[in-house]
Design a protein that fits this description.
Number of domains: 1
Order of helices and strands: HHH
Distance between the termini: 50 Å
Helix content: over 70%
Number of strands: 0
Number of helices: 3
Shape: rod-shaped
Structural class: mainly alpha
Radius of gyration: 24 Å
Largest sheet: none
Length: 83
């Protein structure tokens, strides 16, 4: 076991490490929240139901289903720098 000052230095080192990693996690969560917001906005725009737009969108959804295609809304919400 080390001296009292060595233990204090070790605790300070661990605390600094913890704070730095925590800041990285917070930044990542912030990026995910922004991506979610962008993705939901794009999905909302696609699904906007007004007038004949609903029929056009429904037809597009049917075509995608028939062809086994899907839209990756999460990817569409990714920022350009992360694509």
């Amino acid at each position: 076991m080390g001296t009292k000052s060595e233990r204090r230095a070790a605790r300070e080192k661990v605390a600094a490490y913890h704070e730095a990693r925590l800041a990285e996690l917070v930044e990542r969560v912030d990026e995910v929240i922004h991506q979610y917001h962008r993705a939901t906005r794009k999905l909302w725009t696609f699904c906007e139901l007004s007038g004949s737009r609903a029929e056009i969108t429904a037809h597009a959804i049917e075509l995608m289903a028939d062809e086994g295609e899907t839209i990756d809304w999460w990817e569409r919400g990714a920022s350009r720098r992360h694509r």
